[in-house]
Amino acid sequence: MQYLAALHPATLYALVIVLGLLVGSFLNVVILRFPAALIHDWKCQCRELLGLDQQEQGPEAKPAGVANGRSHCPACGHSIAWYDNVPVISWLVLRGRCRNCGTAISIRYPIVELITALLSVIVIWRLGPTAAGAAGLLLTWTLIAAAGIDLDHKLLPDQLTLPLLWLGLILNVFGVFTDLESAVIGAIGGYLVLWLVFHLFRLATGKEGMGYGDFKLLAAIGAWFGWQVLPTVILLASGVGAILGLVLIALRKMGREVPIAFGPFLAAAGWLVLVGGDAIVDFWLLI
Question: How far apart are CA 92 and CA 115, in angstroms?
Answer without folding.
Answer: 16
